What does this fold into?
Amino acid sequence: MINLSDLEKRVLDSVQQDIPLINRPFYEMARNAETDENTFLHTVKSLLKRDLIRDISAIYNAKGLGYQSSLVAVASEDPDKTAAAISRHCGVSHNYYREHHFNVWFTLTIPQSEDLERVIENILKEEEFESFRILPSLKTYKIGVNFQFSGEKKKKTTNNYSSQIDSVEINRDLIRLLQKPFPLVSEPWREIATILKMEEDELLNEIGRLKKARVIKRISGVIRHRKTGYGANGMVCFQLPEESVDRAGEIAARYSAVSHCYRRPVYPDWPYSLFAMTHGTSVEECEETASEIAWEIAAEKMLVLYSTKEYKKERVKYYLED
It folds into this structure.
């Protein structure tokens, strides 16, 4: 585990929060991190250079931008070769090896106009694999985790996630710009507004509108959690009676160690309907969280799959076809 100063811990906590829609957002974030603006920005740049912060940019709701997304599980005879073919697709954001019959797991995001199954078949057409399972989110209970570096860690938190998306007009130039690295200057919104030939107030109102519609989830930093001490992450899959899944999902989403929680379809060879991604400083910590959730929701069966090899991890880029 890398050694972090108290200041770096506070900055890492702060940078995971949504960047405020005010003239000098880093001034406010610095106050929360108990430092000044210049020191805050210098520390963020240092953490980015050391690859402890992966990037700072907008996180979008794919559906709100006219895209569809799904988790896909592949049973491959040569997982490394199959994963290499999968990672070449620009719509693949996450791609991992996990110890299971289904051993390659990836997330694919494509325009809603495209046929998801056909795209997957095309990606895998030259690969030797036994089968694949398409596992889209049928219901989302939680997206996002704040890794805690300073202060007392909380086991459970409130969860106010809503999957409702309002239909709004999309400024594609704005979407494309906000998915690029966020400007680390005293007045970043003014810089972005200048590029878009907008007034700063106009820009902030537009971003606020997209956030209210839940098209933009947040604009924040993503942490390299493995490098900063959270070295274990387990995808916990629960088998439950159909009528119990929603209640179980709401319970699991309240755990602070859970970053993503979804209801997904089941198959004869895959009976797990609830997925919860857990993070911890060790496998034992993840196992403890998984066991507590399983007991609380009275799961019939539980399976924990760890990503033992990371083939690809990056944010999806939207509207690149233009």
